[in-house]
Specification:
six-stranded parallel β-sheet, alpha/beta
């Protein structure tokens, strides 16, 4: 398949590698001469490393957008209207309004649009979702997710929209339940006009999920915990380990006790998440399957972000239906 990769920053470089490994015939578009030179050095023919993405559209089957969120609506809309299927890195767009406009373009063109919510394709996610689906965990009581660590802030959107959104989508996928309400505290300590720390309590029906995202905590955290009636799952997306703890409270003589249950440690095995999701995108473009993370899923994640922003501003719980 012939694919145009638009945007060759740090994450775009990973896309370039994976598209090559998947056997794609790759074009790249980037306004930076230095990044285009990098692509040529990586094996892209010089004639296919261009500054204007439009020059490649008639030569390719699909487009992979790895650009700032505020460009997604314009770029994806033009590519879709040119008859090209699109992979769009998360977040779908900068705002819910832009996301709805892009969803309308997808519907009118009837092209494929897949959103890059990569945590869905991690083997840790697959392990936990299957454990819940088959009933091992029992009724889920609550979840926690943490995407935090000391690093340079992203400049186009706040940390809730770039990092917290991973868990907004992930828990909807794992729990098989759409989010319904949010209570959030967001902070802009660096004074950039966008949040750099966020604590969000997102309700998935009766199940609350507590999500931390921020640029300040020492270390690197990409983990989550799912607490159920029968067992607790503690997953680490960095190490691909999942601990299964058979911790259950037991009532004896009218008193609740907390005996420590057995702990199993599993290494979740599967393909590289980025390779897995891009392979699924290519299969979808070829008509082999239905879209997995479609424009509506990307829009739902954005809606949670805006509900969190509203909640933090107003100091109250916000129903997602208020943003309808």
């Amino acid at each position: 398949m012939k694919v145009l990769l638009v945007g060759l920053g740090r994450w775009g470089e990973k896309h370039l590698r994976v598209l090559g490994e998947l056997g794609c015939d790759v074009w790249i578009a980037d306004v930076s001469a230095e990044r285009r030179a990098f692509a040529v050095k990586a094996g892209v023919p010089e004639a296919r490393a261009i500054s204007d993405f439009r020059a490649a559209l008639r030569h390719v089957d699909a487009v992979d957008l790895v650009t700032p969120a505020d460009t997604h609506l314009a770029l994806a809309s033009e590519c879709l209207r040119a008859g090209k299927d699109c992979f769009v890195e998360k977040p779908l767009t900068s705002t819910v309004a832009e996301g709805r406009a892009l969803a309308q373009v997808v519907r009118s063109t009837r092209r494929v649009l897949q959103v890059g919510h990569i945590f869905r394709f991690h083997p840790v996610t697959t392990f936990m979702r299957e454990r819940i689906r088959r009933g091992s965990v029992g009724a889920v009581r609550y979840c926690t997710g943490r995407f935090a660590g000391f690093k340079r802030p992203r400049t186009d959107v706040g940390v809730t929209q770039t990092d917290g959104i991973h868990y907004f989508d992930l828990f909807a996928h794992i729990l098989m339940q759409e989010p319904t309400a949010v209570t959030a505290t967001l902070r802009d300590f660096l004074g950039r006009g966008m949040d750099d720390l966020g604590f969000c309590a997102v309700e998935y029906g009766q199940v609350p999920a507590f999500i931390e995202a921020g640029y300040f905590a020492p270390g690197t955290y990409r983990d989550c915990v799912i607490v159920g009636e029968q067992e607790t799952l503690a997953g680490d997306f960095g190490t691909s380990e999942v601990k299964v703890l058979a911790n259950r409270h037991v009532q004896q003589g009218g008193v609740w006790n907390a005996p420590a249950g057995a702990t199993e440690t599993h290494t979740a095995i599967g393909p590289e998440p980025l390779s897995h999701e891009l392979k699924i995108f290519l299969d979808t473009c070829a008509g082999a399957r239905a879209p997995v993370v479609d424009v509506e899923a990307g829009l739902l994640g954005l809606t949670v972000v805006e509900a969190a922003q509203m909640s933090s501003k107003l100091g109250r719980r916000v129903l997602l239906s208020e943003l309808a």
